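Hi Y.,

Following your request, here is the sequence exactly as I used it, all 111 residues.
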Amino acid sequence: MEAFMKYLEEKTDACKAEIAALQAEGRMDDAAFAKVRANIYDICRTVTDVHVNRTKAGKPAVQAQLDRFEAVWSEALAQAKIHGDAKAAAVEEIKLQTLREINVRFAEAAQ
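Below is the corresponding structure, written out as tokens. Let me know if you'd prefer a different format.
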């Protein structure tokens, strides 16, 4: 899990650097989307830390939480599309795309 935690920290840091660069270029919408990705990496890092290191619930608890995130964010995406909210839909798609990346790395780490 140490490598997975390092991956999440590195991705969060990379997003923060990207945010700063985008803001310097005046690309505020792109920076806002990068912030969403940074937040997802950070949330998943916190969830992993809590379940693996603090509560000792382990990898199954982390996977269960990642699955809950996917279900909630998928529903939020569906609702955004129903209501024609393109910005909210874009945010939910970014969250889900980032979560899919994280799930791939988590599956590798869980082996």
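The radius of gyration is 15 Å.

Thanks again,
Q.
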